[in-house]
Amino acid sequence: SIMSYNGGVVIAMKGKGCVAIAADRRLGVRGHTVAMDFQKIFEMGPHLYVGLPGLATDTITVAQRLKFRLNMYELRENRRITPKTFASVVANLLYERRFGPYFVEPVIAGIDTKTGEPYICNTDLIGCLNEPDDFVVSGTCVEQAFGMCEALWEPDLEPLDLFETISQALVNAFDRDAMSGWGAVVHVIEKDKVTVRTVKTRMD
Amino acid sequence: MLDLRVLEPCSLQSSLAACADSQVLGTAPPTFKLPAVADLDGFQKAAVQMVKPAKGTTTLAFVFKHGVIVAADSRASMGNYISSQTVKKILEINRYLLGTMAGGAADCQFWQRNLGTRCRLHELANKRRISVAGASKLLANTLYSYRGMGLSMGTMIAGWDESGPGLYYVDSEGGRVEGKRFSVGSGSTYAYGVLDTGFRFDMTVDEAVELARRAIYHATFRDGASGGVASVYYVGPQGFKKMSGDDVGELHYKYYPVPEATVEAEMEDVTTS
């Protein structure tokens, strides 16, 4: 299956005035693990991040194409993009390739700098937006990730608690997946700062 | 002749078409009912495809000066899903014979237990322990008779008999080869790299155990379908002994510890009196 060729998983969660987005770090070729430092989460603005699990080549290409569209937006509008608008840019980019799609299922997490409102959403590979209030997951172990998130998430978590919750959800989900893992990176985005942490995980 | 049919489990009693004596002695292979379905060939094909796991595992065994080392990981995967991290892949056939599991877990467990039964019957009939060559031949012949029916096994039979250490590789295609060093499963290529580099025939037992542990660890590190616990067994003249069972998650940080990040000293105000 193309979506599980390289492996990988991304989760994003909403907290109280903050969002967190986390991903594993593996790049594999079917069973063979090639890299343990593959970046799947990309910064699109000071408080806006997109995670791109799926086929690794499309991860890189879509990240680059999105950055280009974002830069053009900022040049024309002379302001930073809001997360909601950015989600529409992502959906549009994906639907343009409706009959030959990019094999990524993006996860977007950010804070609207004007209102301080946290925002998360994910899309399928052809751009259908899904904007829930709690958490979003995408990748090769979605079933495991959904189970972990459903069990651990609660509303209005403070940033440090949110970090704990999303880390545990991610790590325990990908410990049950042969195609993801080998390290984890977690970004916690608050109104005034972003904290990036790597998590010590099983390396098997 | 004693009538031992009372000892048979009920499923074996159902087919008395086979020779009555061999049924009673338990030396005949177990009989399996075929499904009562219109298109048997199509059904068999679908069943073979369903049970066909891609031997996602790493097992290895090698002969050295003091005996045989057998090692394996403990992960079971169904496609991408890790169904268990605590599978016993080294099966104790009897006190001086070990078998490894790769391929279908149920197939390996059942047929190696069956092998244990037949080895015991051999002992009772011949008043001496069966050789490793004989035990592996028994298993290979059984698997050959089920060739093409979808069994999936890549197992190594290791043990110590009167002629010293013995190691055979037996698989579900009916193959059986004797050898001094084997690794089986999706992680075998990674294990071979470490094993072949570090191997010396005159290692001590501890060195051999550490080599096997390292080889399994490196396979779990690179292979997605291997992981969990690295178990290492040693088979010597007194029989087998489990030498270690280490979680490979912890082994990673033991072999490659994360260096402590140096913390810059904070600038402090110096009080002046």
UniProtKB/TrEMBL annotation, chain A:
Transmembrane segments: none annotated. Component of the proteasome, a multicatalytic proteinase complex which is characterized by its ability to cleave peptides with Arg, Phe, Tyr, Leu, and Glu adjacent to the leaving group at neutral or slightly basic pH. The proteasome has an ATP-dependent proteolytic activity. Belongs to the peptidase T1B family. Gene3D superfamilies: Glutamine Phosphoribosylpyrophosphate, subunit 1, domain 1 (3.60.20.10). Keywords: Cytoplasm, Nucleus, Proteasome. InterPro entries: Ntn_hydrolases_N (IPR029055), Proteasome_beta_3 (IPR033811), Proteasome_bsu_CS (IPR016050), Proteasome_sua/b (IPR001353), Proteasome_suB-type (IPR023333). It holds the Pfam family Proteasome. Component of the proteasome complex. It is found in: Cytoplasm; Nucleus. This is Proteasome subunit beta. It comes from Sphagnum jensenii.
Automatic annotation (TrEMBL), chain B:
Gene3D superfamilies: Glutamine Phosphoribosylpyrophosphate, subunit 1, domain 1. Pfam families: Proteasome. Its main location: cytoplasm. The keyword Transmembrane helix does not apply. Keywords: Cytoplasm, Hydrolase, Nucleus, Protease, Proteasome, Threonine protease, Zymogen. It is found in: Cytoplasm; Nucleus. It catalyses: Cleavage of peptide bonds with very broad specificity. Component of the proteasome, a multicatalytic proteinase complex which is characterized by its ability to cleave peptides with Arg, Phe, Tyr, Leu, and Glu adjacent to the leaving group at neutral or slightly basic pH. The proteasome has an ATP-dependent proteolytic activity. The proteasome is a multicatalytic proteinase complex which is characterized by its ability to cleave peptides with Arg, Phe, Tyr, Leu, and Glu adjacent to the leaving group at neutral or slightly basic pH. The proteasome has an ATP-dependent proteolytic activity. Belongs to the peptidase T1B family. PANTHER family: METALLOPROTEASE TLDD, PROTEASOME SUBUNIT BETA. Component of the proteasome complex. This is Proteasome subunit beta.
